[in-house]
Each structure stands twice: as structure tokens, then as C-alpha cells.
Amino acid sequence: MNRKKKLLLVAHCLLNCNAKVEGLADCAGAQSALLQLLFARGYGIIQLPCPELTIYGLKRWGHVKEQFATPYFRRHCRQIFQPILDQLLDYKQNGYQCNYLIGVNGSPSCGVEYTQSAPAWGGELSTCEDLPNKLNILRNIPERGIFMEEIAHMLAGHKLSLRFIAIDEEDPASSIDKIIKEIEEEK
């Protein structure tokens, strides 16, 4: 048997950019450059569900972390991650290694090193008299997205440790190089 018993978790949109908010996809269908490098190194991939898609669908607007920092969205994140957690526990019990989770920097859900923030966002767009100024307060903050926070909490509750790394969609080529370098340093 040629199994390497190496797995990693990846954000849903890295395998299916069609799940992203309209206008934000930076590839035709998937982050194929990253995936090809992972496959070539013998990794099996577990695709995380997209919490934004599974709660709001495809016709959603872009959000910021503060809009998802609710007990409802956090519960949704925990519920959709639970089957993945069960898989990880079973894999671990059977001698498999899963050491990495690859997220998407900037995402209010799957950001790892930073996420999008705008504390004043919310309300009805058509009645917002100060929309340009509201849009100008959007910034990156050095925090994880809500889904990544909930995943980290659930993993810790089961004494599982994964290294959270991320693709930066503003510079995918260099972040892919950084991801591959980090994975190869593990050997």
C-alpha cells in the first residue's frame, strides 16, 4: 500500500472558488498551483465546509469579522466543523498525520494571520448616507477569522494541534511558496 497517511485541511474556496463572494475569486475554479504541489508531496486533502456559503448562500454580500462575531454564526461554524473533527480523531486513532490547516488571509471566516474588520458595518445599504466613509474604514486586523477561531477552540478541546497557515490572495504565488516551504521544513 502506498499511503503516506498525511492529510491537511484546506478552506473550502481553495478547492472551489465558486463559493466565494461574487467578484472575489482570483482563479477560474480552484487554487490549482497550490493543490498540485500538495498532491505531489503525497497529501490527502480534507475540504472544510464554507460557513458563509452554508448560512447565506451564493447571493451574499461581503462581510467583515464583526458581522460574523455572533453566537449564531459561531454555533453554525461549530456544527459544520464537527463532522470534520470526528474524521480527524478517527484518522489520528489509526496512525494518520494531519498537521496543517490552510486558510485564506483576509477572510472574515477563514483568515489565519489577518482578517477584514470594519466595526461600523451593518444596516441597510440603500439608506446609508455615509457609505463611502463606511467603506473607507475597512481594514485588516491581525486576528483569525471566526471559523478559524472556532476550529482552534474545538481542536484544543480534543488536544489536537494543527499548524494554521494561509494563502494570501493579494500575493498567491509568494504565499504558496511560503506554505510549501513550511510544510517541507517539517520533515
Which secondary structure elements does this structure contain, and how are they paired or packed?
Layout: E1 6-10, H1 12-15, H2 32-40, E2 43-47, H3 51-56, H4 65-68, H5 71-93, E3 97-105, E4 115-117, H6 131-136, E5 139-141, H7 146-157, E6 163-168, H8 172-185
Parallel strand pairs: 1-2, 1-3, 3-6
Antiparallel strand pairs: 4-5
Walk me through this protein's architecture:
The chain has helices at 12-15, 32-40, 51-56, 65-68, 71-93, 131-136, 146-157, 172-185, and strands at 6-10, 43-47, 97-105, 115-117, 139-141, 163-168. It is of the alpha/beta class. Strands 2-1-3-6 form a 4-stranded parallel β-sheet, sandwiched between helices. The protein has a two-stranded antiparallel sheet with strand order 4-5. Helix 5 packs across helix 7. The chain has one domain (6-185). It is 42% helix and 17% strand.
Query: How many individual β-strands?
Result: 6
Q: Roughly how much helix do the residues carry, as a percent range?
A: 40-55%
Mean of all residue-level pLDDT scores: 89
Low-pLDDT segments, ≥5 res: none
How many structural domains? 1
Helix/sheet category: alpha/beta
Features:
187 residues, alpha/beta, single chain, 17% strand, globular, two-stranded antiparallel sheet
Short description:
This protein is of the alpha/beta class.
